[in-house]
TrEMBL record, chain B:
Pathway: Energy metabolism; oxidative phosphorylation. It comes from Rheinheimera aquimaris. This is Cytochrome c oxidase subunit 1. Cytochrome c oxidase is the component of the respiratory chain that catalyzes the reduction of oxygen to water. Subunits 1-3 form the functional core of the enzyme complex. CO I is the catalytic subunit of the enzyme. Electrons originating in cytochrome c are transferred via the copper A center of subunit 2 and heme A of subunit 1 to the bimetallic center formed by heme A3 and copper B. It holds the Pfam family COX1. It comes from the Bacteria.
């Protein structure tokens, strides 16, 4: 008895709760923050209202007929069954409406595809499951990864405001400038989508696609990968911070300096040896961020798709091969090349971790210099 | 149109030497038996695919991962799509074709009865292979029912070969079914059954059958290239070997877009049969319906790349495919206008088949509207691969194709079983389905416009309330279909005796044979005036 009552109450309560909070979600396409995105929005609304009017007329006539022309009212059915005149009429009118609709759509489309005369060019490269951004005219490039904690996804921690829409290093773009994107991919097809710019373009491996935007207002804009790209397709967000041009230039200079400094540090590191403890701690962090999605936190992989590292003969015996795979990936498989994604220190640490975690107790240490040696083609 | 029915009850007895028990079903070459098997198979697949949809909706009920892993989630979306398209909708239409086409054109059976048996019996094995692959290490196909390369080649699991093999078998089955329909319609029409006297269901199926034999080999080619790319070192879709991943999409959608019409043209035929019956008025614009169906079929070969606007085509190509796609709205509109004109000044009654047909007209048109919106390329950039698309194709496939199949089942059930179905239960089934299906799919439009991508197992918090709502709609729609099974079982086991005509306004040869239709009908062709 109490059970049925609680069931009876729970459904309306839930629906009420849903409608109360629904204000959080916009019910329509965003107008966005670019001239193009606003034109797209207006096209969307125009075609929407055209459909509404046609729908109202057609369904109106249909429901009128359902109410009036029913046998229960004692009507006699008419027997007419063709009229070339009306057939021509209801073929011609839709054609006219469609032509009227096609004109603004064509203009907007041509404007969207005109990627000439760009002020800034960013190469966007998708890979499973992160984005890489490279400012073509500058020495600035970096990876952008999901920043939401695994514990939030697993419902162990409360979810933050930007759950699944936050990254460690956002793409920064200047406002008021024409930014051209060159999209490509390192593995499968991804699709770079930021609704506020009305830019959605596939990143195809081995090919380069173009798109562009000119952002009107500074702000933070979020998007996601829109093309199914494997297991963690849902965990590949995009965050763009739009800054005034002066601030953007300052940021760009700062980034260039930071990257140069990191490179210099890397050279110094070659002469240093790290302890097992330090390597294992950096290694575990790197493993969790870059490797665990496929090889799993337990190192057991997913049988049939991603091989296990736990007990694998490469992780136990063949150290040069191990370093080589992490650096250069494995052709014909989902294993990526990490040489340009991770620092020498991180690669050394993660290999050390893989050779000493989950009962893989080789006791071996891999140092940045070892990785560097394999990279230079003079492995042990 | 009238026919002289020469069959007598006792004539059948000595003709009907069919084996008893299970052997009857294995060996049968009778179009009615095979039709029944197709329909039962489709229903079973509908529930298996539906169970997968329930897993998807359970996981999406709340943000965060609750029940399944992302990899399994992708397997569910993939196999749900494959089963619903190839296992539920297409076999259901083939089942209806088997049952109804010979009876509608006054033929004694399908033209190629042994092939008919074979085309059905390979189907269960195709789906057995597909379903077994889910239990292999690494699981079944997880790259979406569209299996875009290189996700399905270099980056797919070990079970891909089984997926390819299974799709091959489904394709062979469909091609054989299509050949049978074409040969039957061309050769076995009763004397006097001229082309422009054929019922629209026969016309739409004839055109569908041509679409099938034209595009199923293309699908077979696509899966074969996936197979050789993955296992035999070719690089059709790999830029490193001179291939192109976008080529895959062109090939797939050259199959895929006509495939969409394969799943809706027979539905047009069904609705064109049901509406005149219950309006007690002949179909308005019969000839224009035939021409509209043919134009849709022709246009379906010119619009495939509207699925690919974001892949980076030249502007010229984008414009071409946008214009052609918009053009499809014209013949589709003609169909809807003709149905409404058929109802106009009729004398309508609202039995369950009519209710589903009316719901089809309204809800399929809503799917058509969102289709028109998707055709506008600049707007498509925002809609593409979001829940807006999911809403669109579920409106045309569930409230379109599936509703038409359900309508057809109610419409012809008395002819098949000899009993009237339970009208009250049927109305319950209709109203529960109608309300829940809209709770399920209508909010998806808004979720998509708000920016939720499709095929994700987890989502940002703003989408949470709508997704909970959608999931509840999904569970209710799933549960509502249990009423359908109840109606079917009840009707098969007994009920009020059906007359030969069954429905007051029904016209056509199938209504001139007794109910249930005898095992053999029209051994002597009827005379058509």
């Amino acid at each position: 008895m109490t059970k049925t009552r609680s069931l009876r109450w729970s459904l309306p309560t839930l629906l009420l709760a849903a409608s109360a909070n629904a204000a959080d979600m916009p019910l329509n396409m965003t107008k966005g923050v670019t001239e193009i995105s606003q034109r797209v929005y207006h096209l969307h609304m125009t075609i929407f209202w055209i459909c509404c009017v046609i729908g109202a007329v057609v369904f109106g006539i249909m429901f009128w007929s359902i109410v009036r022309h029913r046998k229960a009212r004692g009507v006699q059915p008419a027997q007419f069954h063709e009229s070339t005149k009306v057939e021509i009429l209801w073929t011609a009118i839709p054609v006219l409406i469609l032509i009227l609709m096609a004109i603004p759509a064509t203009k907007t489309l041509i404007a969207m595809e005109d990627t000439t005369e760009a002020d800034v060019t960013v190469v966007v490269t998708g890979s499973q499951w992160k984005w890489h951004y490279k400012y073509l005219e500058h020495d600035v490039e970096f990876y952008s990864l999901l920043a939401t904690q695994k514990e939030q996804i697993a419902n162990r921690f409360a979810k933050g405001e930007n759950y699944l829409l936050e990254v460690d290093r956002p793409l920064v773009l200047p406002t008021g400038k024409k930014v051209r994107f060159l999209m490509t991919s390192d593995d499968v097809i991804h699709s770079w989508w930021v609704p506020a710019f009305a830019v959605k373009k596939d990143a195809n491996p081995g090919f380069i696609n173009e798109a562009w935007t000119r952002i009107d207002e500074p702000g933070i804009y979020r998007g996601q990968c829109a093309e199914l790209c494997g297991k963690d397709h849902g965990y590949m967000p995009i965050v763009v911070i739009a800054k005034e041009p002066a601030e953007f230039d300052k940021w760009l200079a700062g980034e260039a300096e930071r990257i140069a400094k990191a490179k210099a540090e890397e050279q110094e590191l070659l002469a240093m040896n790290m302890s097992l403890e330090e390597l294992m701690s950096v290694g575990e962090r790197t493993y969790t961020a870059y490797c665990a999605a496929c090889h799993q936190p337990s190192g057991e992989g997913l049988p049939g798709i991603f091989p296990a590292l736990k007990g694998s003969s490469i992780a136990l015996n063949d150290k040069p091969a191990h370093i080589d795979i992490v650096l250069h990936g494995r052709a014909g498989t989902a294993m990526q090349a990490y040489a340009k994604q991770l620092s020498l220190k991180e690669i050394a640490a993660v290999i050390t971790y893989e050779r000493n975690a989950w009962g893989n107790s080789t006791g071996e240490l891999v140092q940045a210099a070892d990785v560097h040696a394999v990279m230079q083609g003079k492995g042990e | 149109m009238s026919a002289v029915v020469t069959d007598h009850e006792h004539d059948h007895e000595h003709h009907d030497h069919k084996p008893s028990g299970i052997k009857r079903w294995f060996y049968t070459t009778n179009h009615k038996d095979i039709g029944t098997m197709y329909l039962v198979f489709a229903l079973i697949m509908f529930f298996i695919g539906g169970t997968m949809a329930m897993v998807i909706r359970a996981e999406l009920f709340q943000p965060g991962m609750q029940f399944v892993e992302p990899n399994f989630f992708n397997q569910m979306t993939t196999v749900h799509g494959l089963i619903m398209v190839f296992g539920a909708v297409m076999p259901a239409f083939t089942g209806l074709a088997n049952w109804m086409i010979p009876m509608m054109i006054g033929a004694p059976d399908m033209a190629l009865p042994r092939m008919n048996n074979w085309s059905f019996w390979i189907l269960p094995f195709a789906f057995l292979i597909l379903l077994i692959s889910l239990f292999l290490p690494g699981g079944g196909p997880n790259f979406g029912w569209t299996f875009y390369a290189p996700l399905s080649t270099k980056y797919s699991g070990d079970s891909t070969a089984l997926f390819v093999f299974s799709v091959h078998i489904m394709g062979i089955s469909s091609i054989m079914g299509a050949i049978n329909v074409i040969v039957t319609i061309f050769n076995l029409r009763a004397p006097g059954m001229t082309w422009m006297k054929m019922p629209l269901f026969v016309w739409t199926w004839l055109i569908t059958a041509f679409l099938l034999i034209m595009v199923m080999p293309v699908l077979a080619g696509a899966v074969t290239m996936v197979l050789t790319d993955k296992y035999f070192g070719t690089s059709f879709f790999d830029a490193a070997g001179g291939g192109d991943p976008v080529l895959f999409q062109h090939i797939f959608w050259f199959f895929g877009h006509p495939e969409v019409y394969i799943m809706i043209l027979p539905a047009f035929g069904i609705v064109s049969s049901i509406v005149p019956t219950f309006a007690r008025k002949p179909l308005f614009g019969y000839a224009s319906m035939v021409y509209a169906t043919s134009s849709i079929a022709l246009l379906s070969f010119l619009v495939w790349a509207h699925h690919m606007f974001t892949t980076g085509m030249p502007v010229f190509a984008e414009l071409f495919f946008m214009y052609c796609t918009m053009l499809i709205a014209v013949p589709t509109g003609v169909k809807v206008f003709n149905w409404v004109a058929t109802m106009w000044r009729g004398a309508m009654t609202f039995e369950v088949p009519m209710m589903f047909a009316l719901a089809f007209i309204v809800l399929f048109t809503i799917g058509g509207f969102s289709g028109l919106m998707l055709a506008i390329t600049p707007a498509d950039f925002q809609y593409h691969d979001t829940y807006f698309v999911v809403a669109h194709f579920h409106y045309v496939l569930v409230t379109g194709a599936v509703f038409s199949i359900i309508a057809a089942a109610y419409y012809w059930l008395p002819k098949w079983t000899g009993h009237m179905y339970d009208e009250k239960l049927g109305q319950w089934h209709f109203w529960c389905s109608l309300i829940s299906v809209n709770l399920l799919f209508f909010p998806m439009h808004f979720v998509g416009l708000a920016g939720m991508p499709r095929r994700i197992p987890d989502y940002a918090l703003q989408f949470a309330d709508f997704n909970a709502f959608i999931s509840i709609g999904g569970f209710l729609f799933g549960a509502s279909q249990l009423i359908f099974v109840w109606v079917l079982v009840k009707c098969a086991r007994g009920g009020e005796k059906a007359t030969a005509q069954v429905w007051e306004g029904a016209e056509g040869l199938e209504w001139e044979v007794p109910s249930p239709a005898p095992y053999h009908t029209f051994e002597t062709p009827p005379v058509i005036k």
